[in-house]
Amino acid sequence: SGIDEPMTVSVKRLAPSEYTGCVSMPLPEAAEYPVLGGYKLPVVRFQGISHIISDGVLDFDTAKSHIKMWCQKLGAEALGVMLIREDELTPLVYVAATDTVMRENSCASGSTAAAAYFALRDGKSREYCFSQPGGSLSVRAELENGKISALILTGRAKIAGTYATC
Prior knowledge:
This protein has 2 helices and 13 strands; from the N terminus they run βββββββαβββαβββ. The strands form 3 sheets. The protein has a 6-stranded mixed β-sheet, with helices on both faces. A 5-stranded antiparallel β-sheet has the order 1-2-13-12-11, covered by helices on one side. 33% of the residues are buried. β1 (9-15) and β2 form a beta hairpin. The chain has helices spanning 60-74, 108-122; strands at residues 9-15, 18-24, 30-32, 35-36, 39-40, 43-46, 49-55, 78-85, 88-95, 100-103, 126-132, 135-144, 147-158. By secondary structure, it is an alpha+beta fold.
């Protein structure tokens, strides 16, 4: 999430290696609409990471070729571009400290940013479900007096294997 303190997660075991979890995510610090690369794109800022919400505007190659420059222009520590088409979300993340760009399997803070943006845009509380390469994440975005008051993230996880240490 970019936050530098522990977060509490509620976890329920569904099967021997499958779980569902729920977490109250940090609230955004700001939502803005800068012009980046000729596009007026919504940016949702959190502590440690900002997210561009591209609702059918950008394609993957455009986002990948501009993400580093956009991160610098926004003065962000890290930048996610959430490429959304209907209910499908493809996360692309750049981290300035490591100078790395990664197409992620799923992105909790990016899903949270997208839900916050859509709730603010539509002016109402709602639950959003985003299908991502690594599975679906749901976010309940609550509004009070036109501001985000809560963001509750829910998702499933499966333990794929075990790791041994020597």
